[in-house]
Write a structure and sequence with these properties.
- The chain is mainly alpha-helical.
- Helices cover 62% and strands 6% of the residues.
- The protein has a two-stranded parallel sheet.
- It is globular, with a radius of gyration of 17 Å.
- The termini are far apart.
- 11% of the residues are buried.
């Protein structure tokens, strides 16, 4: 991975190992579903592999949330639906609106 490999080679090794272990987990849950593995992979395959930071963030997070209910549903059902199937307990809604701050004033 170009610059990352030359500047942070150990970090890159760690990311590849995380991806290997994660893809083993995905394969245990959905055996032979290579399309899902490719979609959920932390490292994209191809001539110029890239780190998919969103997938890495979900893998490493305890909790994933949207900022309002509709956004949370989009994240769960559209954007990260495969991850939601794997770890539904990680996905929730936490509204970070201005209403509570208005009440404080």
């Amino acid at each position: 991975m170009g610059l990352t490999g030359s500047v942070l080679p150990r970090h890159l090794e760690i990311m590849y190992e995380i991806n290997r272990q994660f893809l083993n987990l995905v394969d245990q849950r959905w055996p032979g579903d290579h399309g899902r593995q490719q979609h959920m992979s932390i490292i994209s395959e191809g001539r110029n592999p890239l780190a998919t930071m969103c997938n890495l963030a979900v893998f490493g997070s305890h909790s994933v949330n949207g900022v309002f209910a509709m956004h949370s549903e989009l994240v769960k059902n559209e954007l990260l639906s495969d991850f939601n199937e794997l770890w539904p307990e990680r996905f929730s809604n936490k509204t970070n609106g201005i209403t509570p701050r208005r009440r404080l004033c």
